[in-house]
Structure formats: C-alpha cells, structure tokens
Task: structure prediction
Amino acid sequence: MAITVTYIGHACMLMESGGTRILMDPWLTDPAYHNAWWHFPPLEVTPRDLGPIDYIYISHEHADHFDPASLSQLDKSAKILIARYRRRRFHDRIRALGFSDIQELEFGQTYSLNGSGLSVRLIPPDRPWDDSAILVKDRDTTVLNVNDCHLDDATLERLGREERIDLTFLTFTGASQYPGCFEFPLGSKIERWRASKEAHLDEFVSWARLLRARQAVPAAGNYALLAPEQLFLNTPNYVNTPAEAIERLARVAPEIEGLQMNPGDVWLPDGTLRRYKPAPDWSRRMELIEALSRQHADKIAAGFAAEPQAPRDLYDRFYEYFTGLLREDPGIAKRVNIVTHWVVDGPYGGDWVVDFTRDRDWVYRGVPNQWNLRLKWPATLVYQGVACGGIWDDLVLSFRVRLARNPDRYNKEFWTWLCKL
Result:
C-alpha cells in the first residue's frame, strides 16, 4: 500500500491509498475572489472527472481553498476534514452547502481514515489565523501538504526530524495586496516586488531543507489575474514560477529533488511522475496569461456585471456596519489608532472616513484633513462587505482595491482586524 497524488491545480490535489481517496482544497471553478483569480496553468480536471471521494480536506476559508461553487458540485456524502477552530463560521458555511459529516480535527492528533491504514495529522500555523497544514501517511509513504499555511522553523525542523517525508507541497510565490495594490512610485514598487519575490524563493528552499524532504513541489501559487485592469499584477517582478523555485532548490539544496507538477499530473509511490501533458513554457507566462484574458473576455465582463449593485443607502449601511463593530468593542479603535479614508467608486459611493483615533463618532462623510491609510474600492465590493456577508479578507485578496499609506508603515492591528471580519 502506498500513496499516489494527482495534482488538480493551485492547492488542490487528490491523494489515494488502499482504496481511500482524499480531495484537498477543491477550487475547481473559475474565477475566485470576486471574479479576480483564475487558474494558471488552466485546469484539466472537472468535478465530474474526480469519481467517488471519501474525504474532503479544507485547510482554511480563503476562496482559493474553500470554494462554495466547487463544493456544491461534489457528493455531499463525503466526509469533511477541517481543523477545530474557535470561530464557527467556517464550519457553518460548509454545513450550509449540504455536507452533514464534518469532522473537526484537533491539531497534532493522528486520525485513522476508514481503517485503511491511511492517517492524517493537522499542523497549526505560527500566526493568528485559522489555517492548517496536513501530514498524510500510510505504511510506506509520507506526504506533507503545507499549502500556504505559514509554519515556523522549529515546527518544520521537528517534522523533518520525526518524519521521513517523501513528498511535500510548499508555497513558492506571493499572494498579497502588498505591494502591487499600493500607490508607491514605480521604482519603489518594483524594488519591493523583487524583495518579496526573493524572500518567497528563499523560503521555499529553506522549508524543504528543514523538512529533509526527498522531493518538493511548488504549489498553492498557480493562479493569474485576467481582468484587463489587473494584468499588470502578474508581473514577473513579483510572481515566481514553479520553474524558478525548482531552479533555486537545485542550486542551493541539490540533495532535494524539485518536481514541477501541472494539472492532471500524477505522482507515483516510486517518486516518478506520470505527465498528463507537457509543462507550459514559463518564459512565455505573461504572453499566455494575456491570451487567456482575451479568450475569457466575455466571461470576465459578465462576472463583473452580475455582481450585486450598490443601493442608494450604501453610506447608511457602511455607517451602521462599522459603527456597530466599534460600539461593540471600543478597544478596537484604541488598538488600530489610525484614520482610514475610504474612496468608494461607483453609484452611491463617495469619500467616507473610519477614524480609529476617536472615542466615538468614528464614521463620517468627507475627505479627512489627514489620513494614514486610503482604500479605493468599487462600490459593489464595499456593499458586499457591509451588507451581503462578504468576507473582507476575500475582498482584499481580489486585488481590486487600491491602497496608499501615510506614513509608509504597516498597521498590523488594522489589517488583522479587518481581515478577520
């Protein structure tokens, strides 16, 4: 008995051993993140191609890992595996899709699946986010899927010491609003992009070495932004390719074999790959993405047109939403302690302020005399955030927001608070 792994795309894969099949982080439809993210390379497997699924593991609530549109197409008799998080929203959103057998696993505990000899263990992140990595084992094989869960060096080193990891999937590139969505001078933005790019490549290599993995796959970074106004965010100044990650690994840690897995490829227990089709020419990445943008132009336009339109009382909803949160916990304002200027574009938008430096009357109309963070949003996204149950972290990760900060300093308290709403 040994594990085989079919790579579906991005962070999604199918692991099989002894007749038990686990689908992981099924993002199987395009686009995600409010019509922004598309798979690149494009998917080769649809939900109908997957066959029977025993378990579905979902690492966290981000839209490129937890995609309701994909899950709605899967058999609801599958058992769901998630970590036991303090907040219930993730669990409740899964249940609302029709899944009844949701198994919430404790971090660090080993769970046997179906009595088949296959076991899983969830590993917590080193940051205050609801996220998890998963270690999958059978009698002969150990696979670690880190997806984009951030682990500290001590955890990685311990896993490498305690486990013989045959294959690991590690993130290799950035997926953040910084610096691409910020209004920095172009030269400064390129410099920041390149620093982030290098840091992610170094991290990919460092994590593979700490884990002492036999083979490492760059994963959880294969996406593209296809809307014409977002094409610049695919810049090679910021985005790494799997080929770059493997080249860095070969140069710095030649004892570990880097594997590029593309949609449809299958990893076999002897460490070889069964290729579904040739790998893309990564040197033509921007050209191929621009071609996809043209190919899907009608779908892109239709997706934006179908978004819920902001109502006439959008500001009133904005006011009630943020005022309610700050009244419920006035300590938020003291912790954040900055002035945020919201520029809401589109019908019923305007210039609005959430002033965390005040003791009350935090929300008002107008342009503040001094602001610390400016956020330019489409009105439809603000509407989804304040009135339609939209998750602000997903709204930010659509990269459809434009940001500026004064002074040029990261406010951890604000972003942690907003992105957990």
In short: Residues 4-295 form a domain with the Metallo-beta-lactamase; Chain A fold (CATH 3.60.15.10). The radius of gyration is 22 Å. Residues 186-211 form the longest helix (26 residues).
